[in-house]
Write a structure and sequence with these properties.
The longest helix is centred in the middle third of the chain and has 16 residues. Strand 4 and strand 5 form a beta hairpin. With 118 residues, this protein is of the alpha/beta class. The chain has a five-stranded mixed sheet with strand order 1-3-2-4-5, with helices on both faces.
């Protein structure tokens, strides 16, 4: 039973980060854990209702699949489902890509420009 109060339900699609895959972020705490535990992290804030997001999504997924570096993780935040993480990182437009290195944000850009992504 859903009930009121208590912890929000966790996203069943959220999981651990694996090389060669895009990790689906289940919420802010999950994303913060990835930032803390991953030497390198690239996060895609997107929505299935956003045409530019859907246009660049295959490029992001291909880059993740081609990645063989165990120190680099790719993650995606579906902003239609996960509401706390975008606000925390001041995501005001999507797609929005944020890269982290050793826990610190070092790159942030908006838009579906593949040349900016890689």
């Amino acid at each position: 039973m859903g009930g009121m109060g208590g912890a929000p339900p966790t996203d069943p699609t959220a999981g651990d980060a694996k090389v060669g895959e895009v990790c689906q972020v289940g919420g802010l705490s999950h994303l913060q854990k990835l930032i803390k535990e991953s030497p390198g992290l690239i996060v895609d804030f997107w929505s299935p209702t956003c045409p530019p997001c859907m246009r660049i999504k295959p490029t992001f997924e291909s880059a993740a699949k081609a990645n063989e570096n165990p120190n680099l993780v790719f993650a995606a935040v579906n902003t239609s489902v996960v509401r706390d993480a975008p606000g925390h990182f001041q995501v005001s437009a999507i797609p929005n890509f944020i890269a982290f290195h050793n826990g610190a944000q070092f790159k942030n850009f908006k838009g579906a420009d593949e040349q900016m992504l890689f």
